Every structure is written in structure tokens, then in C-alpha cells.
Amino acid sequence: MKIATYNVNGIKSRLPRLLEWLERERPDVVCLQELKALDTGFPQAELQQAGYHALWKGQRSWNGVAILARGAPPVEIRRELPGDPADDHSRYLEAAVDGIVVACLYLPNGNPQPGPKFDYKLAWFDRLIEHAAGLYQSGHPVVMAGDYNVVPTDFDIYNPKSWRKDALLQPESRERYQRLLQQGWIDSIRRLHPDAQVYTFWDYFRQHWQRNSGLRIDHLLLNAQLAPALQAAGVDAWVRGQEGASDHAPTWVELDLAKTGKAAAKKASAPKAAAKKPAVRKAAAAKTPRA
């Protein structure tokens, strides 16, 4: 099974790119973020024609999350992150797909910081950590996939110096991400590619895509029941180079579901030797003419 996460940065304007990627890569499950559309504006018919059932929770102009699945429809578990009934942001969706619990999340950006937006980011992260502890211990195979808006370490960004004041690199943001991992979650990319420069986001400024000046902020975390099934992980970076693309690229894992279940209790203590696919299909600046 191939599970992917993709911040589409506006599903209406990016739909051609989304459909192109789905046809070429054929992921089985997809977590989408930043739909930037109301529920009525979700392209259900187009995605169904492409072979995907969908759950979604939209919001006008920003936020919005969805879970796509080929074959059987995803079975909804919850439509919001517990802990704050007053939070009306569409940032979390949870469903069961082929026996796997799939949590799709769009963690707040938090800029500018300090300030109320950063405070909201940290409070949301604390709620996620609390909920994630229950998911991890549920006994079910679980993946938490999405745009975490956190650069875990300086190795996960092309140049940390120019981003030091950004909410994505703040010690409080990184500490919470590490606290999440300390529950036992496996960061799929780092488990299989501990020494590779892997990016999932390149902003639209200063030719960052052409120069491969990226950040790793899209993550797929696996619990103990699912981690032994991990076979490959990577980024479909070619999508970012398409005309009218999102500033994110789809990030994915490939799982051998035969290795879930009771065998998953025996957690691997060492990283896997190699993935079946390269971690990133590189941006190759030399092939992209600069403006």
C-alpha cells in the first residue's frame, strides 16, 4: 500500500496537477491539506472519475483537509482534533482505510511569532500530542500524515540562518515534534533516509525551487503496529516543477501490510538498509532555466 500526504495549496486551482499526479503515481491513500474551498467546492466527481473515494472538511479561503482512497471508501472516525470545542479551523480528519487508521492533519503555521498565531500553533500541537498518545496505544496500525509546519532539525532545511525567526524553526515547535516522536512514532523519511537531504516544500520566492532551497515539513509518522511494514519512503518532487504547482510536493510511504499485526510488537531497533525508490526525485537546477 502506498500512502501519501500532499498540501495542494488550493484544490480548485491545483486540480489538474493533483489529477496528473494521481494518474502517474497511483497512491492508494492520500491525505490532502489546504483545500481552501468550502465543502460544496470539493471536486468529488473529478476525483471519483480518477478512481478515488473521498472524505473532506473544507473551509472558505484557507485550511481544509481530505482523505482519498482507491477501492473501498474511507470510513470516517472523527472530523476534528479533540480538546477545544471552540476551534472551528478545518485542520484534522481521521478515517479507517483497509484496517489502518489514517490521521490527516494541517498543523498551524504560527507566523508571525511571537503572537496569538504562534500561541495557537503551540496549543494545537499540545492537543495533537495528547490525542496521538491514544492513537499510538490503540493497538491498531496508525499513520499520522500531513503538513506539520515544523522543520525538525537544521538538517531539514537548506539554510537555517535565514529562517531563524520563522515559527517553523522555533525551539518550542521543534520540542513538541520531538515530544511526539518520543511516544514511539517513526518519522518514515528519516527512518529510511537518515543521511539524505530531503525536502518537501519550496516557496515561490528567490528561485528556491530552481536552486533546490527547500524545507522538510510534510511528515508521515507510523506507530509500532505499522512501522514494521515500512518498505520505502520518498517525495514526488517532480510535481513541484509542473506549471501552476503547489509549493509542496507529495510525500509518501510504501507499506507491506502483511508485516502489520502481532509481529509489529517487535519494533526494529535499527533503520532499514535501503528504500526501493530514491528519497527525492531531485529538482536539478541545471535543467530549469532561471528567470
From TrEMBL:
InterPro entries: AP_endonuc_1, AP_endonuclease_F1_BS, Endo/exonu/phosph_ase_sf, Endo/exonuclease/phosphatase, ExoIII-like. Residues 264-291 are annotated as: Disordered. It holds the Pfam family Exo_endo_phos. Coiled coil: none annotated. GO terms for molecular function: double-stranded DNA 3'-5' DNA exonuclease activity. Residues 4-248 form the Endonuclease/exonuclease/phosphatase domain. CDD domains: ExoIII-like_AP-endo. Residues 264-273, 281-291 have a biased composition (Low complexity). Its cofactor is Mg(2+). The keyword Amino-acid biosynthesis does not apply. Keywords: Hydrolase, Magnesium, Metal-binding. Its EC number is 3.1.11.2. Belongs to the DNA repair enzymes AP/ExoA family. PANTHER family: EXODEOXYRIBONUCLEASE III. NCBIfam families: exoDNase_III, xth. This is Exodeoxyribonuclease III.
